[in-house]
Amino acid sequence: YDGILVNSVGTKGIFSWYTYDGILVNSVGTKGIFSCLMQEPFKSLPVIWTIHESELALRSRQYISNGQVQLIDDWRQAFNRATVVVFPNYFLP
Fold first, then answer.
1. Residue 92 domain-assigned?
2. Which member of 7, 19, 39, 60 has the greatest number of CB atoms within 10 A?
3. In angstroms, rounded to a whole number, what is the distance separating the alpha carbons of residues 70 and 91?
4. How many domains does the chain contain in total?
5. Is residue 25 part of a domain?
6. pLDDT per position as a tens digit, 2-14
7. How far is CA 57 from CA 51, 53, 72, 78, 83, in A?
8. Strand intervals (E) in the chain
9. Cβ atoms 17, 45 nearer than 8 A
10. Which residues form the domain of 62?
11. For residues 37 and 79, is the Cβ–Cβ distance under 8 A?
12. Is 49 inside a domain boundary?
């Protein structure tokens, strides 16, 4: 077949990651799937994370100033699992 097959899955439920060649993620809210993707045999599954949340930087500063460092650490852990993290700008809708 030509092109790439894309399936949309939620963050709850049981999925067979064996049927995927890669994962596209577009929200910090989906970081819950990363606990599964950080374990074998899925550690080598490519993850491309596109961050569209325009207030991510502002919120991270607020979390740090409020002492909510655990939230920042959770995001860092999830970002570290990603193969690529993309922060699109107005050139990339």
1. no
2. 60
3. 33
4. 1
5. yes
6. 555 656 665 556 6
7. 11, 9, 11, 16, 21
8. 23-25, 47-50, 84-86
9. yes
10. 18-86
11. no
12. yes
CB-based contacts of 46: which residues, under 8 Å, 6+ apart? 21, 22, 23, 83, 84
**Angle subtended at Cα 22 by Cα 56 and Cα 86, rounded to the nearest 5 degrees:** 25
Question: CA 31 to CA 89: how far, in whole Å?
Answer: 22
Q: Tens of pLDDT along 13-61? A: 666 667 778 888 877 677 677 777 778 878 888 888 887 666 677 777 8
Check residue 44 and give its pLDDT.
84
Which residues, other chains included, contact 65 with Cβ-Cβ below 8 Å and sequence gap of 6+? none
Does the pTM of the predicted model rise above 0.70?
Answer: no
Q: In what order do the strands lie in the sheet with 47-50?
A: 23-25, 47-50, 84-86
